[in-house]
Specification:
- The complex is a heterodimer of chains A (133) and B (82).
- By secondary structure, chain A is mainly α.
- In chain A, 77% of the residues lie in helices and 0% in strands.
- Chain A has helices at 2-19, 36-61, 70-99, 103-130.
- Mean pLDDT of chain B is 72; it is low at 72-82.
- Chain B has 2 helices and no strands.
- Chain B has 82 residues and is an all-alpha fold.
- Chain B has helices at residues 3-31, 38-53.
- The chains are: A mainly alpha (133), B mainly alpha (82).
- The interface between A and B is large, with 49 and 47 residues.
């Protein structure tokens, strides 16, 4: 069961990590026009926040039940320290890219979005792998 | 299955439901292989603007506080914007 759960967790995490923010074609009449990069950035930022928030809230709400697995709290604490800075950085770089869609700004934005994806994947893995034992 | 294990199963169900609820809009949009409609774009933009409007408030709940093992709050570094 542990192996199945780990595989399921890894699979889900891989799907999330690879698929969050992969839209390629936008209706040009929409608010993003045809800027898929900006749309994907907003999708990654909001989805990553939701996932990481779900994780830290889950750990906080079930701390007693999860006490036997100190790694979960450790992982949650890392996200508590890192996620605010990452999210704020992503928002700032997103704004910079929106104002000046240069290659440099796009690369900076992509870098921080990549870190956000990793946080979301790690949060998902932790929740799936450690929810039942 | 003892009481603790039952509690953990219930925890899993809670987490699963919360996760599905959070991810459903995203997964639904991913399922669409065609064009992202104007309405779908607006929904993402609204969500982003809502998150941005909260500024650091989105990290203000007790679930974001780093605590030691004895539940004593530990002072965390200021979370300034970039």
């Amino acid at each position: 069961m542990n192996i199945q759960r780990n595989i399921a967790g890894l699979f889900l995490a891989m799907v999330l990590g690879s698929q969050i923010g992969c839209a390629t074609k936008l209706d040009p009449a929409g608010p993003y026009g045809s800027d898929a990069i900006l749309y994907n950035a907003d999708l990654v930022i909001t989805t990553s926040y939701d996932i990481v928030h779900t994780f830290v809230l889950w750990e906080y709400s079930n701390r007693d039940a999860l006490a036997a697995y100190p790694g979960i709290k450790a992982a949650a604490d890392v996200m508590r320290k890192e996620a605010p800075g990452l999210i704020n950085s992503a928002m700032t770089l997103r704004e910079q890219y929106a104002k000046e869609p240069t290659v440099t700004n796009r690369l900076s934005l992509n870098n921080v979005l990549s870190l956000l994806r990793k946080s979301a994947v790690e949060a998902t893995k932790q929740m799936v792998e450690h929810s039942v034992n | 299955m003892n009481k603790e294990q039952i509690q953990q199963v219930l925890t899993l169900i809670d987490v699963g439901l919360a996760l599905v609820e959070k991810l459903l809009p995203t997964l639904s949009s991913l399922k669409l292989s065609g064009e992202i409609t104007a309405e779908q774009q607006q929904a993402v933009l609204d969500k982003f603007n809502s998150l941005r409007a909260k500024a650091d408030g989105q990290f203000g709940g007790p679930e974001w506080e780093v605590t030691s093992s004895d539940e004593t709050p530990v002072e965390s570094p200021p979370q300034e914007g970039q």
